[in-house]
Amino acid sequence: MSETPKSIKQGVTEAQNAQTERIYVNMEMMFRMTQARGASFDAVHDYALQNLRRRTSAKTYQTRGIGDKTMVFCETDDGFAATRILLPELLEAWHGRIPGTMLLGIPNRDFLLAFSDRHPAKTAVMRQVQRDCQRHKHLLFSSLLVWEKGLIKEYEPVH
Description:
alpha+beta; elongated; 38% helix
């Protein structure tokens, strides 16, 4: 990974100082950052992922249940829960706790759920994700996603 240009670090620091405990880059700031010498969208993206990794810990998510009934979820009010789907090392760790194929639900930006395709209440969980996507602010996906071999794709249930 290349060194993050000083101008990008400074811009993100300004964003941190502007709002305590929040690390983000708004569109105006991203434009300024990408216009700096040596900056690129990839550098901004890498830096954003570094920030997300710093904001993610075992306290960020919870695991409930055992075996096929294991569910891991991240529920925050900071707008970053769903973005954690961009952290392959986190999903790989979750996959190690969940037997079978890992399904993902992200009905809104503040909720990310992982569970097994073998979960006895899989159909009910799928319906709940659909309902939550209709009821809450900042909607994302009413369909489930699947994590397979390090890749995320739309889940297609077998009937």
